[in-house]
Write a structure and sequence with these properties.
The protein is an alpha/beta fold and 333 residues long. It is 44% helix and 16% strand. It contains 15 helices and 12 strands. The strands form 2 sheets. The protein has an 8-stranded mixed beta sheet with strand order 5-2-1-6-7-8-11-12, sandwiched between helices. It is globular, with a radius of gyration of 19 Å. The termini are far apart.
Length: 333
């Protein structure tokens, strides 16, 4: 299977690097800055100690979509705001039999890709783990989780390749509830970015958890009104998440031990984006809840406020580093 990665950022380079290390035929397409960063190869590592060196002879890197012309399967790893542009860039390039898989945050990317690529099979997928850049060229997976690919066509073969490469993967014939469940988890991205803390430290602070609980509880109300039941993709049923987050620190540490199985320095992708001056994906996370609330007639002041806070932080060009009490007051206000 000739594999392509369109959007070779943190997730793209980790997934592509793991596949290349396993001997797969991989072409990465990304920005010139990334081409320079991994010109002499890259390293992929994981929270459990796994580390693999991937020499420059094990993959091809290009800044042009045309490099994906003969790929059998293309993973899309761009940010949500770039989904349409990715589809347009690939429309005249990849062959009609190529399968496209969205490895993106949010719930609407696959459908938007289908509109841009009507001749191709497009599959949604959910990536549960976060990846951070360590040093100049090491792409480190800081948390556990299984990739879930929408069933259909070559989905089983894709999941098998990912699993053989060291990334657990399954297929699901009900991918929408899975994507909504991941979105609930991703509502912490904004909280983490505004905290300025690593994920583990942020989740260990009760006021930050209370802020996240407000976002998740509001989202669950909206999903219920829309008739959407998010799937269980972790160790906790989605309706129990707000209760768990509101527990005192000591009880939370016991009840959510699995939730805290992340590297001490791991941060959310949104925190990485803001630190690098890249536009955050807030409109495709909390913003999705706001839009669904408008459709269902359910007010969403908490998630709307989170969108405002993160957007303002990006516009200011600096992270505000709000304390837990400051963020909680901002969302309640």
């Amino acid at each position: 299977m000739r594999i392509g990665i369109f959007g070779a950022g943190l997730i793209g380079c980790h997934v592509g690097g793991m596949l290349a290390a396993a001997g797969e035929d991989v072409v990465l397409v990304g920005r010139p800055a990334m081409a320079e960063r991994i010109a002499h190869g890259l390293t992929v590592s994981r929270y459990d100690g796994l580390t693999r060196e991937v020499g420059p002879d094990r993959f091809v890197f290009s800044t042009e979509a045309a490099a994906l012309a003969e790929r059998d399967m293309v993973f899309i790893c761009v940010k949500g705001a770039d989904t349409e542009r990715a589809g347009m860039a690939l429309a005249g390039v990849i062959g009609p039999k190529a399968t496209v898989v969205s490895l993106q945050n949010g719930v609407s990317n696959a459908e938007r890709l289908r509109r841009a690529l009507p001749r191709h099979r497009v599959l949604a997928a959910m990536v549960p783990f976060n990846v951070s850049l360590v040093g100049s060229n090491r792409f480190h997976c800081g948390s556990e989780g299984t990739i879930i690919v929408e069933a259909g066509g070559p989905a089983a073969a894709i999941a098998s390749r990912l699993t053989e490469a060291g990334m657990g993967a399954l297929t699901s014939d009900r991918i929408e509830p899975v994507l909504w469940a991941k979105l609930l988890m991703n509502l912490n991205n904004g909280v983490n970015a505004l905290s300025g803390l690593p994920l583990k430290a942020q989740l260990s602070g009760r006021d930050y958890r209370l802020a996240l609980a407000l976002c998740v509880a509001e989202a669950l109300t909206v999903l219920k009104a829309a008739g959407i039941r998010p799937a269980r993709i972790g160790k906790v049923w989605p309706p129990m998440i707000p209760f768990l987050l509101r527990l005192p620190d000591r009880l939370f540490a016991i009840a959510a031990a699995g939730m805290l199985k992340i590297d001490d320095e791991a941060r959310s992708s949104m925190a990485e984006d803001l630190a690098a001056g890249r536009p955050p994906e807030i409109d495709f996370l909390n913003g999705e809840i706001v839009r669904l609330g408008q459709k269902t007639g359910v007010p969403t002041p908490v998630n709307a406020r989170m969108v405002e806070l993160v957007t303002a932080a990006f516009a200011a060009g600096a992270l505000p580093r709000l304390s837990g009490s400051e963020l909680l007051a901002a969302l309640r206000g």
